[in-house]
Amino acid sequence: MKKKVLVIEDEKAILQGLLDNLNEEGFEAIGESLGKNGMETALREDIDIILLDLMLPDMNGLDICKEIKKQKIALPIIMITTKSGESDKILGLELGADDYITKPFSINEVLARVRAVLRRFEIHDKVKHQKLENYT
Q1: Looking at residue 1, what is its pLDDT?
Q2: What is the DSSP letter of 61?
Q3: Alpha-carbon dihedral of residues 114, 40, 11, 93, nearest 10 degrees?
């Protein structure tokens, strides 16, 4: 079954490039260019991972990350942003991001990071289920 990736990005060229490359690599990629729509999609749909731009025209990506993590704590989020300062990265990670990529980026790096984060979450889920089975 294909992993579903939600890309929340307001720059049309970047959004389309990410969607095209993710789909080519076997993911089911969907995109939203507004934060509010992206957050609603993330909370409504069965999403496996989110690529989230921080600077969106209608909402701050940090606020979106906090809200999604509050309601779906196990949904991995990779932030993609031009903000490359150490304090920006630390804040993003402390608010719930699972990884942080700065623009400009290599599509190969994005794909590798998506796979790595998904792998970590899958391993965590397997270990959690094994522990639960041992208690029943």
Answers
A1: 85
A2: H
A3: -50
Structural tokens at position 122: 């899958």
Read off the pLDDT of residues 76-118 as tens digits, 9 standing for 90 and up.
Answer: 999 998 888 888 889 889 988 999 999 999 999 999 999 999 9
Tokens standing for residue 53: 């731009």
DSSP 55: B
pLDDT for 134 equals 54
Inter-residue contact 95 to 87 (CB < 8 Å): no
pLDDT band with cut points at 50, 70 and 90 for residue 129: very low
Burial of 28 (0-12, 13-18, 19+ CB in 10 A): middle
Strand partners, 32: 8
DSSP string, 74-128: TS-EEEEES---HHHHHHHHHTT-SEEEESS--HHHHHHHHHHHHHHHHHHHHHH
**CB distance 113 to 78 below 8 Å:** yes
Task: Give dist(CA 118, CA 103) in Å, integer.
Answer: 21
